[in-house]
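input
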Amino acid sequence: MTKISISSLSLFAVVLAALVGCGPGNLSSSLTGAVTIDGQPAPEGLSLQFQPTGPGASPSYARTDADGNYVAEFTATRKGILPGTHMIKLLPSEITRAMPKPGEKPAPTPFDKLPRNYYEQIGEVTITDGSNVFDIQLSTQGK
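output
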């Protein structure tokens, strides 16, 4: 008969937890859509956050592709979104600007014309179990 030490059990528990991961056990909801700005597809790299309005729930994130489409991701390795109502907002862009020459203004990015209030809240979406599609229409003139 083999003896199992407490330290072996502890190591097994840590490895098992790492393999299972954190967060909800079942992300049965997905969210996809398209973002337009003034009727045109949003440029690649527009970052969105979908924050559940309920207490203690984790948000999902998305970035637009070259056609303005997005897919919500719960983590970097898990696509999906929790069911319920979510507040949508923009996140600061990671698009880098070309370094200006001394005395010149930085080159604008495609997102500079978007109103600041979009970084606080664009709107809300209610997510149900299964596949959800939600298109987001933005305007450089605001809501």
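quick obs: Residues 5-22 have pLDDT under 50 and may be disordered.
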